[in-house]
Design goal:
Layout (H helix, E strand, L loop, with lengths): L2 E2 L2 E4 L4 E6 L14 E7 L8 E2 L1 E6 L4 E6 L1 H4 L5 E10 L5 E12 L2 H9 L1 H16 L1
Parallel strand pairs: 1-9, 2-9
Antiparallel strand pairs: 3-7, 4-5, 4-8, 6-7, 8-9
Length: 134
């Protein structure tokens, strides 16, 4: 069974976390010969996902680094998501080792971009017309 570890990510910022992978006896999993992948999606049934940059930082100590660049997090809506980390052995066996909830926290810069960006202006234009008519 996968370990549960929840993450909090600031929208529009770089995010990096190093996590350890352990077996059922709480010993570090030797990741020699393993590849790692990690994805975020809005729900279990979502058809789209966002991939972390996932790398093994130490094979002997079973540590993995997960990274999302600011260009990726700025494109994610604030809210709750799900994620998991899967390791694949040299023989092709896939094991889900970590899973959890990701909370994308909005930032002031993101909100200002929303307030003064073209999206909000296009929404406000019809509202101004309605206010003028009323």
């Amino acid at each position: 069974m996968a370990a549960v570890h929840n993450l909090h990510i600031d929208q529009g910022a770089d995010f990096t976390v190093e996590v350890g992978i352990y077996d059922d006896n709480n010993a570090a999993w030797d990741l020699t010969g393993y590849a790692v992948a990690a994805k975020i999606q809005k729900s279990y049934y979502s058809t789209t996902s966002t991939s972390f940059i996932a790398t093994v930082s130490s094979t002997a100590s079973g540590t993995v680094v997960l990274t999302l660049l600011d260009t990726v997090t700025s494109g994610m809506d604030p809210g709750r998501y799900l994620y998991d980390v899967v390791v694949t052995s040299a023989g092709g066996t896939k094991t889900r080792v970590i899973e959890g909830i990701v909370t994308i926290n909005p930032g002031i810069t993101w909100i200002l971009k929303l307030l003064f960006g073209t999206h909000l202006k296009s929404l406000l234009l019809p509202l101004r017309l309605v206010l003028v008519v009323v």
